[in-house]
Design goal:
Length: 511
Amino acid sequence: MHRVLTLFVAIGVICISTGIHAQKDSLQAVKPIEDRFEKNLDDLVQQWYLKKFLSDTGRPHTGKGDTLAPVYPDSVYMDRISRLTTAIDLSYNQIVRNFIHVYTQKRRERVEVMLGLADYYFPIFERIFDQYNLPLELKYLAVIESALNPRAVSRAGATGLWQFMYSTGRVYGLTINSFVDERRDPLKSTYAAAKYLKDLYEIFGSWDLAIAAYNCGPRNVSKAIYRAGGRENFWEIYYHLPYETRGYFPAFVAAMYVMNYPEAHKLYPQSIDIPFATDTVHIKHRLHLKQVAHVLNLPLKQLQDLNPQYRKNILPALDQTMALKLPLDKIAGFIRHKDSILAYKDSTFFPGKLVQNPGRSHFVRQTPTGKAKLHYKVKPGDNLGYIAEWYNVRASDLRYWNNIRGNMIRAGQTLVVYVPKDKADHYKKVNSLSFKEKQSRIGQPPEKKNNSASRPRNDDYIYYKVKTGDTLWEIARKYPDVTQQDIMRLNNLTNARTIQAGQYLKIKEKT
């Protein structure tokens, strides 16, 4: 789901609780880690991003020479990491050390930009994580996910500060269309990240595994736990994780270290051209950022940086309210000149039918006829495959009914399920059962009021009790001149595969 950190990890023993002094061969083997991670860091920060945000600080830039970068013994790194206040179990070893060296020696300029951006983004992250009662240190995930670049896009298409894929973003309530991509919205994407991280913690019960799952998905972490014999610690399942995920948690530990001890490595925040004092106005009309920039005499780039979610610089607020973030000192001017702003070159920015309710679609989802509508609240550990089996429906139908792309669902989400009306009472119980009880029902036929185990009353029909393995075609062959279609029509069956062992079928022999 997220940006791939393709990392080659050194062959050797990982020491969980103490630092290890690498041998010459080990250091050479770890070299690809540094090279790959540097490349990813460069791709995320991007030269245009550096040029846009860097300003003249009046001092020599520390990133131009490694001679200014101190290198400390393992004992110093271990001591500093142990003094960090965190609810996350941080371990130090040679892999973490190499990531620290990437940050503090080889990519110093990028780190100084991130230190400057952190002053703007971290208060946003902290406020939202605090609302969800999450460790505030999770904010450092955005450092390794996007280098604090809201416009970062991975090769796989993961986007924004928190690198959401399209499907995951939609599951967590983010709007993504031709005009708006809320994966790039610092506020809304952080709310989505908080929900996702909270769901992952509920599944695994530890933050090191939740962080790993944020990178490779909960299914891959669950597989690694199984292959490691049920061990539930990142370093114990390390070699069973995907290669890119093996470097993810160590990179997180290193990022947390560097962002807390920058001055020890002579790293200093670069000034950025984003106003820290801002406020939000709500728009109910279509609006182009250039209209605001021209009338209020604001740099367009500043407006774009404050509102990165608008892909074409347009707020398509035709039938909904949309938020526009502005520098605090421009709020009064916007309110005072709002009509002038909306009218400024309106025909130029919106010729003809440029914006026509982009949030709407002519596609209408069809409700199954003759079915009962039930609701299922997703529990931690559930997946679409399980739920489909519990309700005896197809996973593709669950996706269709609930507008789900892929297989991502989250705990607490409510799914719509359609079942046969005569079986509704049977399936209503699923939502309140334990996982074990739900699994035990798989393959068991629902109880039917009209399908008693006792032989039905005697009349003009022959009653056949279905046996395990029977098919309608085989049953029809037992009776002269009776076809499969005759049995289906007489018993109101729409699908020949829906018969179940123990069920009685009416059969009318032809005379």
